[in-house]
Amino acid sequence: MTDKTQQIELLRFTTAGSVDDGKSTLIGRMLYDSKSIFEDQMEAVERASENRGDEEVDLALLTDGLRAEREQKITIDVAYRYFATPKRKFIIADTPGHIQYTRNMVTGASTAELAIILIDARKGVLTQSKRHGFLATLLRIPHLVVAINKMDLVDYAQDVYEQIVQDYTEFAHLLNVQDVTFIPVSALRGDNVVEKSEKMPWYDGPTLLHHLENVNVGASLNNVDFRYPVQYVLRPNQNFRGYAGQIASGRIAKGEEVVILPSGLSSKVESVVTSDGELDAANVGDSIVLTLEDEIDISRGDMIVRTNNLPQKSNRVDATLCWMSEEPMKPRGQYWVQHTTRLVSGFISELNYKIDVDTMHREDAESLKLNEIGRIQLTTTQPLYYDRYQINRATGSFILIDPATNNTVAAGMIRGKSRNVDQLREGEVDTSPSRPKSSNVVWEQEGISLAQREERNGHKAAVLWFTGLSGSGKSTIAKKLEQRLFADGVHTTYLDGDNLRHGLNGDLGFSSADRQENIRRASELAKLSFAHGNVTLACFISPFTADRRFARGLVPDGRFLEIYVKCDLDVVKRRDTKGFYAKAIAGEIADFTGISSPYEEPENAELVVETDIQSVDEIVEQILAALYERGILPNK
User: Fold this and answer.
1) Which residues pair with 303 in a beta bridge?
2) Of 45, 155, 298, 410, which one has the greatest count of Cβ atoms within 10 A?
């Protein structure tokens, strides 16, 4: 293969239109006139046309591959075709025009840089013509070509063409489309497809193929933000550890500093490896293997990014969703969320509205059905690292998978952070939860100072904040630790989430606001216990980073130890000593952490203990050692 062939540009484009607008015929004509089909393919099409009794060879059969399509003369599935000219290579996605196949168009257009929307010159701009334009702009396809087909059936009339241009231009203004090109064609006769038509001397624009060969390629690619989702870890021997994947956006070079998400650990790129050898740099779309200067635990689903160019991170995102399953969307039902190479559990926490793609009006809805599009709030049990779809299609898109059938049920485009999650969760504003404040009250100082209490007790006060999923072992560890501390004469207070909900917090539910209030009260109680010189053991799931940050802020630096009791979700599901997980999975418990509500893992906990690989006694000794090391307990 020559260097010139290797460097030839590639354009992915999709075709769409109403039924019988001639999409498949147009592609067949383009393949035929550009001499991009083999003789045996043409002979097969000629035989098929003859068997159906067609008077002329039906070029649509070059793309209509399914038997049902050939029999009904419609396109049902997405048909991908490949061809090339001396200037450019092309991948075509021929998508159905029927209203019930919206999902197929979304599939075909998801990676396209240009969309051809066909309009029958006899029928003018139809509802489905608008539908396909809306979908194309929704998917952020940068170039739109409106091919006004079947001009031979209206005697190549200029006024018919101009009226359609005017009508579609008015509609396109509503879509905020940047680049729309109108081309009058006859797919059946070949006018303005590959060769300039002599039947339309009034048209002075390019032919369709000329436009496809010269339109700007790469306009939708993000060449700035380096995003590298890890697909596979390569360890062929002890001397090589590489991370294989495809660059979703941006570029990377040897020696550049990178950060690995979600761990937050940093390193430098040692080498950029391909099957042809090492490169100095690689760009968006390249499939490579990265090696790093440091030994870091990285696995599939992690993302490597530049140190000073990080994606957004959130458990809740605002998204546009196209439902692609015969089975309707289950409100608050659990789904797998596949985002880049990361697979996490999640659920649709809110359906804001569905979009009537005929009128683009918003409508209230309880669910989404096949081919319907809506705006949703998606909640995941682990954070996603994403960019808005508007600026990065690769990291701004996701699919939903039904865990029961493993079928893909929806495709989504991320608009940004969930509108129901304020900046509080992200630490961008004051972390103090807003609440009613009592008036005419004055804080009463204790009669005995903390220093006096600590001197009498013989140890320092501290708050040990145990956080983790339900069933991870927080309470078991804390109780065992308290027994050891009590035996050594240490003054303790034990606070447990369940116990507080029986009394002080008995009026609270499990919504995000109530969870926040629950932790606020527990934090204030831990603060009072600390002020009395106690080592306070607080056991709360406390799933949100901001709430744990609030608790930390109530006691002096060095006196708050966040202890992340880590345990694999599958392990705690199997334990399920209280039967909560089974009920949550069955939908009997709403907003259950780890199933239908997220858990934000601590990133800077003082201690991380793992109950699925460590014994309780080992963990207790680990915590005691930390208390001695920090001077909270006196050395024996």
Assistant:
1) 229, 261
2) 410
Q: Is 13 helix (H, G, I), strand (E, B) or coil?
A: strand
- Cα–Cα distance measured from residue 112 to residue 220, given in angstroms and rounded to the nearest whole number: 9
Where do we find the tokens 């018919």?
160
Q: Give the homologous superfamily in CATH for domain 457-629.
A: P-loop containing nucleotide triphosphate hydrolases (3.40.50.300)
The conformational region for residue 489 under phi > 0 = left, psi -120 to 50 = alpha, else beta, is: left
Q: Maximum Cα–Cα distance for the chain, whole Å? A: 105
Do you find a cis peptide bond into 262, omega within 30 degrees of 0?
yes
413-443: pLDDT as tens digits: 898 887 543 333 333 333 334 445 555 455 5
- How does strand 265-274 pair with strand 88-94? unpaired
Count CA atoms closer than 13 A to 398's CA, side-chain side. 31
Q: Are 191 and 185 in contact (CB under 8 A)?
A: yes
CATH level 2 (architecture), domain 3-214: 3-Layer(aba) Sandwich (3.40)
Distance CA 243, CA 100 (A): 41
CATH 2.40.30.10 domain range(s) in the chain = 227-306, 314-421
**H or E stretch covering 456:** helix 450-457
Q: What is the dihedral of CA 603, 608, 611, 616, to 10 degrees?
A: -150
Three-state SS annotation for 459-509: CCCEEEEEECCCCCCHHHHHHHHHHHHHHCCCCEEEEEHHHHHHCCCCCCC
According to DSSP H, which parts of 178-310 are helical? 208-214
- pTM for the model: 0.61
**Contact in structure between 120 and 20 (CB atoms under 8 Å):** yes
Position of tokens 């898109």? Answer: 397
| Residue tagged 């090391």 (tokens) | 629
Is 542 one of the catalytic residues?
A: yes
Active-site entry in 18, 110, 542, 596: 542
The stretch 160-179 carries a mean pLDDT of 84
* Most confident listed range (168-177, 191-200, 598-607): 191-200
**By the 8 A CB rule, do 258 and 270 touch?**
no
The residues of the chain that CATH labels 3.40.50.300 are 3-214, 457-629
CATH number for the domain whose boundaries are 314-421: 2.40.30.10
- The top-level CATH class assigned to 227-306 is mainly beta
Q: Is the dihedral of CA 169, 371, 219, 205 positive or negative?
A: negative
